[in-house]
Design brief:
The complex is a heterodimer of chains A (about 130) and B (about 325). Chain A is an alpha/beta fold and about 130 residues long. Chain A has one domain: 3-Layer(aba) Sandwich (Rossmann fold), CATH 3.40.50. Chain A has 5 helices and 5 strands; from the N terminus they run E-H-E-H-E-H-E-H-E-H. In chain A, helix 4 links the parallel strand 4 and strand 5. The two termini of chain A are about 20 Å apart. With about 325 residues, chain B is α/β, with parallel strands linked by helices. Chain B folds into 2 domains: about 210 residues, 3-Layer(aba) Sandwich (Rossmann fold); about 70 residues, no CATH class. Chain B has a 7-stranded parallel beta sheet, with helices on both faces. The longest helix of chain B is centred in the last third of the chain and has 29 residues. Chain B is globular, with a radius of gyration of 22 Å. The chains are: A alpha/beta (about 130), B alpha/beta (about 325). At the A-B interface, helix 1, strand 2 and helix 2 of A face helix 2, helix 3, strand 3 and strand 4 of B.
Amino acid sequence: MQKKEKIRVLVAKPGLDGHDRGAKVICQALRDAGMEVIYTGLRQTPEQIVNAVVQEDVDALLLSILSGAHNTLFPRIMDLLKEKGMGNILVLGGGVIPQEDIPQLKQLGIKEIFGPGTKTQTIIEYIKENISKT
Amino acid sequence: MELIENLKKADPKAIARILTIVENESEEAKEFIEKISPFVGKSYVIGFTGPLGSGKSTLIEGVSLKLAERGYTIGILAIDPSSPFSGGAFLGDRIRMQKINLRDEIFIRSISTRGIQGGLSPTIGNMIRVMDAAGKDFVIIETVGTGQDEVDVAKMVDTCIIVTMPGLGDEIQVIKAGLIEIGDIFVVNKADQLGADMMVSYFRSVLEGSPNRNGWIPPVVETVAVKEQGIDRLVDILLSHKEFLEKKGLLSLKRRQRLQLEILNIIKSKLIFLIEQQLLSSKDFEAYLDKAISRKQNPYQCAEKLLSLLIKMLLQEEDNEGKKD
């Protein structure tokens, strides 16, 4: 048989913000880069997101947030990921996140935070370089 | 193998991991399929197909929820198309399945067609097998949005549900061959929209005159999936079709069809692989192409010669496999 591995990515919108133009742009860019992108839709709880991560067996989780609730929601997501045995996947954040919050988010295990204006190519390359294919 | 033990306990992480392995068709995949094959054959498989935007995902959400409430477990395989250019895919079926995302009885997996046409994924048979081994009572397959003649799904499933909606044309569209011939149940979704009654009567009139299906007359059901209207009735009809197949002893026939299609597809994909990877790049192909261009031979003669060459390649391949074993 021939090997047909694909990078699988979940793009999620945690919490109560209703804007996903950015998340959709990311989805399209990753699709065009040959990845399989699963989008959760808006207003997801950490439980819903982590459940989708488990079922979809993704290599990376991309969290997009514009509401300012990242300091509450991101830690909960990271805890749940570890609890479900998915602590080893690549987690990235994006959206509107103040500089001063970034160090503590990285301490939780979120590898990188991509703010407004980031080139999609930067994100694509980052994912390709940093996922752990087992 | 620990993964397989966990799969049999329906552990979500094990199901997900093994689905990935079989989807990637790695060497490992063969091993897994061999190991789980003895436990399969219990799941009842349902297919939802129909045009894009007709509401398949939302209907599946509703039907799964009702089945879960009646005490069943469900595995959903939701297929979306891959890009013919990048090979990537945007898989958005989960967005319409928010109400069932956290139900323990329901497992949802999004799948890309990975370049294969016909509305299904090339490894769908094995993915059904994984859900089956995990003890799911029902496996629900959602095809990509289909048009007129993507009919393979009917051979993969026990009950085939065709989803349509008002405004997609008139009786002429319904009479055309294709989807009308493969449905066991027809759903006119978005039935609160103008033209739903007409759509239902088009279907009823065409189905009345369609060939005998062992005594089953495909019912036409009206639903409004987003308002959860008509879903209970659809589930009742679905279960009555299952009972019908069981009573008439037709289930084994369905399973035979499914395996036939699966085996054929595996052969086809191997042949295509061989044609693309070896025949197309061989010197012989170029040589015959030159003969065709200089009109020394016509395309049929060239094809015949190349076909015998392909058969030789196949035998060679088989020989190598034999040595490996």
